[in-house]
Amino acid sequence: MRVRSVRTIDSVIVGGGHAGLAMSRCLSDRSIEHVILERAEVANSWKTERWESLRLLTPNWQSRLPGYRYEGNDPDGYRAVPELIEFLDRYARLISAPVRTQTTVTAISRAYDGYLVKTDQGEWRCRTVVIASGACNIAAVPSCATAVPAAVRTLTPMQYRSPQQLEAGGVLVVGASATGIQLADEIHRSGRPVTLCVGDHIRAPRLYRGKDIQWWMDITGLFDQRYDQVEDITRARQLPSMQLVGTPERLTLDLNTLSSIGIKLVGRLAGVRDGIAQFSGSLRNQCALADLKMDRLLDSFDLWALDHGLDGQIGLPIRLPPTAVEESPRLELNLASGEIKTIIWTSGYRPDYSWLHVPVLDRKGRIRHDGGVAESPGMYVLGLPFLRRRKSAFIDGAADDANDLSGHLVHYLKRVDPPHRLAPAC
Predict the structure, then answer these.
(1) Does 393 fall in a domain?
(2) pTM greater than the 0.85 cutoff
């Protein structure tokens, strides 16, 4: 009989991305013994699940982690993925993060006054656990995908790398948030006809009055708005990402730009029946609503500039023209006709908590929490949209959230007696 040891520690962090590393630094500063369990390598999703041309949507100056920030000569630029990987790898070394790589968590369950964390490399007993495995583990593919004809190839953004992997012919991109508009643009420029399904979206200029949109969100305090200051936090956490792209030219990429180069816009994909893709007729209304929300946001920036005496010191308040929608957008597309060779589902992501055997998940598989404090004593979650602040999902948001939650974790540990030692498992 082989006896397996169960290692005991104060806290286990699941995930070696930017959120897990930020929490590690904060726990180290508070002298909390911990370990990071990472299924592959630090920044693994950036290394293995991103397309080749991707750049961050946030400017370099916004890459701020506890005790660490961008120090290069291009603060207003946008990192390519290899640069971000280097940034996170260097941070892990700088803080001496206790990362166990190539260690996949297979189960987490309650055990006495703490948690038992099972991995493919052994087991850990801890009093607290921090789930920092991310919100984008699984691409959200609509149920109607099963009705797509077999001759049409389907991909998710996690599988897409470049247009060269696609067959010649038309491409249907389903979803018009940041990922959808970027892939639609790139694929169309490769010579393939593109049709873009547009549902709920957030339109925004890359630059407004000479400043990056992220600068405005940061300086006006919108990014620091707390989850308990929002009337409907559930809805706020489900909002799509802004239609942005990070380019050296700091270009605005919106639906008007895409239409101008020949990309066809259709409404939200309503379903697929008998090989026919059916689109909602609400495209014009969706675009008008996005335009209205954008103008309201820019109005708030103008008011802030006026109130802070900057109105005459920055650029003019020039607005983008309304989104142009053709008179009768297409409502159907025969997927069996050969017009469309590939569909890319850019319809969002969802987390994977299949290994979490603690009753904290809602009916949609999301962790129930109050600003990152899960509904199980000693459990925390980090790196989700609008977790504690509007900026929570960004690299820049992890520092403040990790500082808050690590403080809560320390107070929790002080209230809980040290765990009982587990008997060796056979």
Answers:
(1) yes
(2) yes
